[in-house]
Request: fold
Amino acid sequence: MSTGDDITVLTVSRGRPQLLLRAIRSVQQQDYSGEIHHLVVVDDDPQTVAVLKKQNLSSINFKWISKPRAAATASGPHHLAALRNLAVQTAKTKWITFLDDDNEYEAHHLSKLMECAHKNACPAVHSWMQILHFDGTPYL
Reply:
């Protein structure tokens, strides 16, 4: 297990490789000074696996695993929770955060979370989000 303030970002993805790449880029663009690991669990999706194989992600702490799905396995909250639990069990850092494949972080997201955690001596922190349309305009 890693020590200190290293962070693992966990993302589960299925069938949205272009959105996943946007999420990955947002993790790469973080201004956080500590070490960031990004773990993607691909939910039985050869198309996303093919896209990830073509990416040059070796310069960052990036790892992906492909999780095959049994024919009788249905999508839904239970299945998503199982995939997230698998990701948590795979992470090796004290701090863990989740990023959905159709979302992205602002560049200061992780640094602000860690600043809040340290300032308030909290073992866990949460943040709110800003919802935008794909063109970047505010949703509400």
Remarks:
- The longest helix spans residues 77-90.
- The chain has a mean pLDDT of 91.
